[in-house]
Amino acid sequence: MNGNKIRSWLGVRGFGESHGTAIGVLLEDIKPGIKFPIEEIELELERRRPGRQSFTSSRLESDRIKILSGVIDGITTGMPICMVVYNEDQRIEDYAALKDIFRPGHADWSWYHKFKILDWRGGGRASGRETIARVAAGAIVKQLIKPIQVEAYPVQIGKIRAGTFTEGFTNQLFWHDPYTYDAVLQELSDAKEAGDSLGGVLEIRISEIRAGLGDPVFGKLDARLAEALLSIGGIKGIEFGAGFALAGWHGSQANDAMDVDGFKTNHCGGILGGISTGSEVIMHLVIKPTSSIAQPQQTIDIHGNEREIEIQGRHDTCLLFRTIPVAEAMVRLVMADCISYQKLLDGDKKDLNDYREALDRIDEDILLALRRRKEIVKLIAEYKAEHKLGILDVRREKEMIEELSIKAELWDIDNNFVKSIWRLIIAESRNLQEE
To answer: What's the pLDDT tens digit per position in 95-105?
Structure first.
């Protein structure tokens, strides 16, 4: 299903479940002859790996990447690159008691009603472990988006907000305020001891970004970033620049004045009209408390019976820390997408691979449109059968061809070519309806 494919210039598709054999990612459209950044991928996966600090899951996974295809002698071949990370420390028995129970705060209820089956082994692809694919893909494009830099760090954990940003203050929580660090540690320790969890706020900054990235209306840079970041499990809100505070400001305060040196403020967060201004892009993400907690909770099972559960196992006290490399990876993928498309608009010198890459994206869009069309044709067939309507509609087909012919002339496309293609499509539609 297309929900497992990241919408980007690069073909990035994730697969695998939390407690299955492996988590993997398939990368398409990577040019041949590129040095494959295996060290960069391993470094980013190490940042995401569980068990690295006191308040993350104690699940012991090495998260070592295995390359199955598309790379030889450390160089890309141009073929699809398949990478997997084998799961080594599954404890399916931790979830056996929850097999038919909807865990509060988790995706169990909504996924069960969509797919009519419940993957009780840690949530399957609803688990945060699927983010391995995102992090691996984001590491690959890290070099492609230079000089753009992406950095994420926490600015709130529980009720504690960072008051200052001190460069060089390093710690296991990636917290930049030495004055509130002890309070944050205490807040996390108290939640962990109580079998509870905490949420937080993550700040993301995109620096060294040029003006002009993003596209009008439905391709806005902030919309693309929001889509990518909200696809990460646990993210429940996002704001750009001054964000929700703007609701209480006047326009005279909110507008970013300009002088010969550029913008004097950055309340817009580096994006105006959906397109980057050249100022730093600043975002804040709200991350909810971890849903798996070791406290009694009321719920129901798949039979509708009321149940009380306590979720045992190895879970993060706060999701925020391991979300950092995932969020950075998703931002990098969006930026790589925007840069690739902007190159076409800018008229930069391109080689044959660049042109073929652009065609591949268009061809994929055509196939996706045909797939959607096929699904609608099936629904039409069901409707016609139910209402005892004939399959062949000569008038409708004639009108369709005439309208497409007019559009073909407007867009300077060969009219006979268009007619030939749509006659084939219409014939296939008839065959589907007859079946």
So the answer is: 677 788 999 99
Please provide the DSSP assignment of 168-181 as one string. T---TT----TTTH
Distance CA 270, CA 252 (A): 18
Instruction: Report d(CA 183, CA 27) in Å as an integer.
Output: 43
Identity of the amino acid at 383: Y
- pLDDT per residue as tens digits for the range 114-149: 988 887 777 778 888 899 999 999 998 898 899 999
Phi first, then psi, for residue 301 (nearest 5°) are -105, 180
pLDDT in tens, 266-283: 999 999 999 999 999 999
Strand pairing class (149-157; 160-161):
antiparallel
Domains of the chain (ranges; CATH) run 2-349 (3.60.150.10), 354-434 (1.20.59.10)
Residues 6+ apart with CB under 8 A from 287: 199, 200, 201, 202, 234, 235, 236, 318, 319, 320, 323
Q: Which residue's entry shows tokens 């099936």? A: 378
